[in-house]
Amino acid sequence: MDDIAPRRHSIVFLHEVFFSLNLAYAFGYTFIIHLAENQILFTPSSDSGYLFRRSTVRVNDFLHLKLGQALESVLRHPNPGSSIGGEITFCLSVVAAAVLLFFLLRLTAGTFMYRTILSPVAGLFDILAVPAGYLYVLKSTWHLNEFLPPPSTSFWHSPLLAIFGAELLCISILICVYRTRPLSLWVIGFLIVLHYGFWVVVLWPYIPTYVQRLFAPNFLLFVSPLSGVVWLVYLKSSQSRFTKTHIGAMVGWRASAAGAVALVVLAVLWLPTPGYSLAHAKDMNSLTIEMSRTSCFGMCPIYTITVHGNGLVEYVGRANVKIRGFQTGTISSDQIGKLLEILDRAHFFSLEDRAFNWCLDTPSVSVSVAVDGRSKRVISDAACSGAKLGIQAQFVHAADEIDVVVNSAQWVLCDGHRCR
After folding, report:
1. b or e along 259-293 (b: 16 or more beta carbons within 10 Å of the residue's beta carbon)?
2. Alpha carbons 337 and 327: distance in angstroms, whole number
3. Which fold has domain 278-412?
4. Could you give the CA distance from residue 236 to residue 182 in angstroms, rounded to a whole number?
5. What is the pTM of this model?
6. Would you tell me the crossing angle of helices 4-38 and 223-236 to the nearest 10 degrees?
7. Which of 17, 96, 147, 277 could anchor a disulfide with 265, C-beta 3.0 to 4.6 Å?
8. Domain boundaries, the chain
9. Distance between alpha carbon 27 and the CA centroid of its chain, in Å?
10. Using DSSP, how many helices (H) and how many strands (E) does the chain show?
């Protein structure tokens, strides 16, 4: 008995670890597939691409990783850097989320909820969580791709959904049968191999993250079948009865410390950086706001507008504008305050333009702000600006509002329209 107890403790611990890791991976896989499906759209349905690339930039900056010259020659904008950052971001996020889930699981140790989670619930999640995430993304993007013809059938008639539904029904029946009459280990093992053999092929897609391919989600996919195997070992070892007195599953200082570290890692990776409120600037005389619009494949206006804290507006027109050369104007202090509010609404000092969406042959817009000894420049594609209500779109809209406040149309537009 003394030899059996440590072995049982180890099996329970492995089951907790792999269940938490598989659940975290299911969320991560769903997110990254949603990102991959969305980034091929001219107008993505969410900001997932920006959020992931922002985290990638942070990792690359921390490790001082740069983008290769081959991709640099294709892009015409700030870029998120080496693809290694994306791989590390995904892996760190999954592991940190798994540690948090493990900590939360330990908080329920010894309870009925804990025993229920580790037995039937864990089995269902280990086997079906990742396919369910994939099907969710498939449904949400079923009719979104404007570059491809619409599907001939609805999502609810797709073969993958039918297979998933049949598996869910069969697994539920088998779990109920197992409670009264345990099945042969060989039968359960064969069914698990058949299940994972099918879904691993389906869930092994090409996953690009803007201009870089991501490999980590493919390799971590094997967490799912491993968690299923560990769950099977847990059931065959009669651990569902043992967990009623499993003292080792209680929360200790190590689990608490690991949970705190995981929370910090996720916060550093994913939360926006603290910004600076321009509306509360101390020295307005130090304020300079410069906005520039650049060329495109066509007749896009090219000009620069600079606003000073004293209300002076300087305009320089370069091409495709009504007035070329240097012009000046003035705006009131209230209008300057409105400009600062516009930039604050766009969270200007928290933006990471290397995470923005970009297209080819489209115009770009940049805004530079200097005030109170701080300075920042943000550049974005003015047409391909990500999700409709996303962070990048808010910045592009803020640039348009700056045009309105300073009345740049008087120098840029010809009779209210673009100059030709």
Report:
1. beebeebbeebeeeeeeeebeebeebeebbbbbbb
2. 22
3. Mago nashi protein (3.30.1560)
4. 9
5. 0.85
6. 150
7. 96
8. 4-270, 278-412
9. 11
10. 15, 8
Output the six-digit token pair for 392.
């990048």
DSSP 8-class letter at 165: H
- Report the distance separating Cα 407 and Cα 282, nearest Å: 26
Tell me the chain's radius of gyration from C-alpha atoms.
27
Closest CA to 35 of 386, 392, 389: 386
* DSSP-derived 3-state class of residue 379: strand
What is the mean pLDDT of each successive set of 10 residues along the chain, which is 420 residues long? 56 88 94 84 83 92 70 51 86 95 86 80 84 87 63 78 87 72 71 84 73 81 87 69 47 80 94 87 92 89 95 94 93 94 94 88 92 93 87 95 94 80
| Type and span of the H or E element at 163 | helix 159-180
Neighbours of 334 (CB within 10 A): 8
Q: Which residue type sits at 281?
A: A
Q: What is the pLDDT of residue 146?
A: 54
Structure tokens at 97: 């989320």
> For tokens 């200082």, what's the residue?
253
